[in-house]
Amino acid sequence: MTERFSRRTFLRATAGASGIALLAGCTGASAGSDDETGGDTDGSESPAPDREMPDFDGWFDRTRNYDGVHDKTGESEVTVAVGADGNGGGFAFGPAAIKVSPGTTVVWEWTGNGGTHNVLHREGEFESELTALEGTTFEHTFEETGEYRYVCVPHETLGMVGIVVVE
Ligand SMILES: [Cu+2]
């Protein structure tokens, strides 16, 4: 697992370019995916060099667009795309992982790509409608510190999951 950092950093230029590059990276067959000996070739996008990339107990094992925790602390409102490019199509939350301060409102905004999506918190604290409509928004204000894991029910198995870290 420790090889992930450097490998993902190496892949950053290609993985971030397009869904096609991302998909190619995930097959493990194209250049760049086997430059190191790590057996973990899930093709995740690479993080910015200084971005933390915790494993979250494997929460993002199938999430190829996970590119580290985007630090949004100190912002009162943060937007996450629903149907962002990733996981073989418009099947991603973008960014997949964010860190916010208590009191922050997270706004999920539907891109219109990837079909029908929703936002479902595992522990039932928030749940959006199920829709494909571009421009739909759903928001939740996080008051308590903690890790909030959520999924898109139709595409969870494709890796369309996310996390909000409140600290
Ligand atoms: Cu979805």
From TrEMBL:
GO terms for molecular function: copper ion binding; electron transfer activity. Residues 33-43 have a biased composition (Acidic residues). Residues 83-167 form the Blue (type 1) copper domain. Residues 48-59 have a biased composition (Basic and acidic residues). Keywords: Copper, Electron transport, Membrane, Metal-binding, Periplasm, Transport. It is found in: Membrane; Periplasm. The keyword Calcium does not apply. Its main location: membrane. This is Halocyanin domain-containing protein. The keyword Metal-binding applies. Binds 1 copper ion per subunit. It comes from Haloferax marinisediminis.
